[in-house]
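Reviewer 2 asked us to include a model.

Predict the structure of this chain.
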Amino acid sequence: MARTCGARGRSHRECDPDLLPRDDTRLGRAGRRVPLGGRRPGRLALPPTRRGAVAVPSAYLWVADRFAIGTGLWTISPDYSTGIHVAGLPVEEAIFFVLTNLLVVQGLLLFDWVTARADERGPAYAVAGLVPPSVASLAEAVAARVPDAAEVRRRWQ
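Predicted model (structure tokens):
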């Protein structure tokens, strides 16, 4: 029996915040998961695991940056800074580290999503709608010429 959550008795899969929301309109009724966005249109929500994937490296970089600025290893020019500091770290630096880590996490998720689509239906389907059709056909032609792992091993032995 499927576990349920919430007052409406939805299945556990629908309530799990780490699962990606479904997009039934763009990819047919199969209910493919989309890698960005929240459960409602226009809402960008990060599940707890992704928050951790952004917060941990950001915190490390904040500490390293604060240490480097505090010891004089590098400086931030006051001409190009707001002058607002949080725990001795310029706010621009803190925001920069959060945004770059967010982009890295989302980029890895998108890459994983595209490769899963390629494994499922082929390289042309993986990039359909993301790039012009000419690029999609080029990707399919290149992928057809790339040997699989068994062929590479055979050639190197």
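Residues 132 and 138 are 10 Å apart (CA to CA). The radius of gyration is 22 Å. We have added this to the supplementary material.
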